[in-house]
Amino acid sequence: MRPELMELSASQVNPGQTIEVRFPQETARGIAWVLEEQDGETWQARYYLTAVTDGYGAGSPSWWSVDDDEGRGWEDIGIEGPGPDTLTIPDTVQPGVYRLCTANSLQNICTTLDIE
Predict the structure, then answer these.
(1) Extents of the domains making up the chain
(2) Residue 7, SS3?
């Protein structure tokens, strides 16, 4: 999971909340993220998220459900530096334990997140 490679502005969040992710080691990554829900001993992808950073994206962060991914995707770009990368927690997410993971970087980096 490598949670030491990223720092969240909050580890307990609410649906619809915007968070910032920083990278103390300036880890290379893309703009794609996945929000996975803990299901017993496994993790299930529930949402895909697109980050906005200082270097990419002038609009707002976006997200969509894994059930609504037809015709969706991300630009294949590389981002480096400490961030912050801005993400929005989906407003339809159910409370529970999740992990937030990079979705298209060389290293799969994840950290846990409690959604209230």
Answers:
(1) 3-115
(2) strand
Indicate the pTM of the whole model. 0.89
The whole-number pLDDT of residue 106 equals 66
> How would residue 91 be classed by pLDDT, with cut points 50, 70 and 90?
very high
Any idea which fold 3-115 has?
Immunoglobulin-like (2.60.40)
| CA-wise closest residue to 90 among 67, 56, 74 | 67
Query: What are the DSSP calls for 53-96, one per residue?
Result: ESSS-SS--EEEEGGG-TT-------B-SS-PEEEE--TTPPSE
Alpha carbon distance 63, 13 (integer Å): 16
Which residues lie below 8 Å from residue 37, measured CB to CB, with a gap of 6+?
43, 44, 46, 94, 96, 97, 98
Closest CA to 93 of 111, 114, 109: 114
pLDDT at 57: 66
DSSP string spanning 8-36? ES-SEE-TT-EEEEE-TT---B-SEEEEE
